[in-house]
Design goal:
Blueprint: H1 2-12, H2 17-30, H3 33-59, H4 69-79, H5 83-107, H6 111-138, H7 144-175, H8 180-198
Helix pairs in contact: 1-3, 2-3, 3-6, 4-5, 5-6, 5-7, 5-8, 6-8, 7-8
């Protein structure tokens, strides 16, 4: 299970430079300076998550890791795309992370790790709402066929992310009481809730 925590710690440790650059450009183009401030706060919060997990690993006598293929793929996807795709990749990872940290909390006997998982879960709830609302804003002028294609592509990305996390972290998730079917169902329940918040039609003032 240590390797699983190490990999998630790595995923939380991004400096967020590319996202910040995209957010800064978006704020300049739209005049939405509050969004840039919110992104800066989001990046700092993610880095705090990485710090919490690093402290836990150190308390157990373990270090962090520098690279994993799944993390590299997610980072590459975020860096070769525009703001919408970058946010879509982020929210995808955060939705699956909500399920993972809930399972990890059940899998561990460490009070410290359980407290960390609880804190990260609460933060991820807010992060998913924040990112989902931004996707709704970015998609508000998209045509109906365009939205249908967007939904299909996002579902495809989410499906792949769920499978990758299970492949790499299935042992920890099973120890938390979720077999593959339960994990799969829980992920899609979380995605369904977030997807409704991504729909521009759900907002009156966009």
């Amino acid at each position: 299970m240590v390797g699983s925590v190490q990999e998630f710690q790595l995923g939380e440790s991004s400096e967020g430079k590319y996202l910040h650059r995209l957010a800064r450009r978006h704020a300049k183009e739209t005049g939405d300076g509050d969004y840039l401030l919110a992104v800066e706060y989001f990046i700092r919060e993610e880095q705090r998550h990485a710090g919490y997990l690093r402290q836990f690993l150190a308390s157990e006598g373990f270090g962090t890791v520098k690279g994993r293929w799944a993390d590299a793929v997610f980072r590459r996807l975020r860096r070769v795309a525009n703001l919408e795709v970058s946010v879509g990749v982020l929210v995808t990872a955060e939705i699956v992370a909500k399920v993972y940290y809930a399972a990890l909390s059940e899998a561990t006997r460490s009070p410290m790790l359980r407290a960390i998982c609880g804190r990260i879960q609460r933060d991820e709830e807010a992060h998913v709402r924040f990112q989902a609302e931004r996707l709704a804003i970015l998609r508000r002028h998209r045509s109906r066929p365009g939205m249908s294609l967007t939904r299909l592509l996002h579902r495809t990305l989410f499906c792949g992310a769920c499978l990758v996390v299970w492949r790499n972290h299935g042992d920890a998730i099973r120890r938390g009481g979720l077999g593959f079917r339960a994990y799969w169902r829980r992920c899609w329940e979380e995605f369904g809730e977030a997807r409704r918040a991504m729909e521009p039609a759900g907002y009156e003032d966009l």
